[in-house]
Amino acid sequence: MTAVADSPPLDGARLEAFVHQAVVDMGAAVSGLLLHLGDRLGLYRAMAGAGPVTSAELAHRSGTAERYVREWLGNQAAGGYVMYDASHDTYELPPEHAMVLANEGSPVFMGGAFEVIASTYADADALVDAFRTGAGVGWGDHDHRLFSGVERFFRPGYAADLVDAWLPALVGVVEELRAGARVADVGSGLGASTVILAEAFPRSTFDGFDFHEPSVVAARGAAERAGVGDRTRFEVAAADTFDGTGYDLVCVFDSLHDMGDPVGAARRIRDALAPGGTLMLVEPMAGNAVEDNLHPVGRVYYGLSTVICTPNSLSQDVALGLGAQAGEARLTAVLREAGFSSVRRATETPFNLVLEARP
């Protein structure tokens, strides 16, 4: 008979610490849904700048039911998202917290991130099947909140950094855009990045390409509402087959790692560039090794990559599955394999890595 090895002795302090961590994460997991509800119902917007309010006052201001609001506020106070004054039974959203939760024009607004996370819970059955079979989950197969959530997640960073920090870090590109350049935005999604560029550089023209038709239709509408429809064109096209050549600048925002064949896409981009043209590649910030990414931002990106980015890549031809934490070395190798001779890190933020590549 085979002897059963004795279980190793448990470290009681380590067990207690990990139970505490799991409880903290349990609270974060359910609070993520309540954050999404607060965003969707306008609860944070109703609290912003209002000072201390009771649950009844907040329910009246937001057009919601007081009993639900009262319980929601208890969760928010327990998590430190709102401040509770027991002597007056009131709750207050500090102005710094409002920048994150209520102000969509803020560079640190995160309402879109929680919308994305909420959408992934709805995809759990599809992801269970994907884990078991190795099959992919295409972009268009996700819960509808993914699309609007991604746009709201990335737009604040683009609005804050794209024109004022990222483009100036590229050699000679701002001058070309001011004079009048041809620009392609590959993987343009709902058009936020394209519209920001078009608003900033009225002498340039912009083509957006995305393989998801509903996103392309929405991008066209966004451009018209922003008053830049006459200088933008959005077409349904894959990143490795889009039409057009002679682009002075091609941008790829947070999407190369989602593609099944990023080398093929980068090769098509290289061919589409005019002589002296530039590729600006914006990707999630990541180190080159797993141990470099074991921190809160890396945890978020690995999580989103597991349920969105990698499944999308695995649903396409080649199915390279770069993942959102590919890192600069791997991304550079992809671009060099595609024929780019010059690749450099132009700039970075805590959330973004910006590479400049030239043929």
Could you describe the 3D structure shown?
Helix 3 crosses helix 4, helix 8 runs parallel beside helix 10 (192-200) and helix 10 runs parallel beside helix 11. The termini are far apart. It is built from 14 helices and nine strands. The strands form two sheets. A seven-stranded mixed sheet has the order 5-4-3-6-7-9-8, sandwiched between helices. A two-stranded antiparallel sheet has the order 1-2. It folds into two domains: 31-103, Winged helix-like DNA-binding domain superfamily/Winged helix DNA-binding domain (Arc Repressor Mutant, subunit A, Orthogonal Bundle), CATH 1.10.10; 115-358, Vaccinia Virus protein VP39 (Rossmann fold), CATH 3.40.50.150. With 359 residues, it is α/β, with parallel strands linked by helices. Helices cover 49% and strands 15% of the residues.
Task: Compute the number of strand runs.
Answer: 9
Q: What shape does the CA trace take?
A: globular
Helix content: 40-55%
CATH arch. level architecture of the largest domain = 3-Layer(aba) Sandwich
Total tally of structural domains? 2
List SSEs in N-to-C order: HHHHEEHHHHHEHEHEEHEHHEE
Number of helices: 14
Radius of gyration equals 23 Å
The CATH superfamily of the largest domain is: Vaccinia Virus protein VP39
Q: At the third CATH level, what is the topology name of the largest domain? A: Rossmann fold
- Spans of at least 5 consecutive residues whose pLDDT stays below 50 are none
Specify the biggest β-sheet.
Answer: 7 strands, mixed
As laid out across the biggest beta sheet, the strand order is 5-4-3-6-7-9-8
Question: Which percent range describes the beta-strand content?
Answer: 15-25%
First and last CA, distance: 67 Å
**Average pLDDT score:** 96
Please write the CATH class name of the largest domain: Alpha Beta
Class per helix and strand makeup = alpha/beta
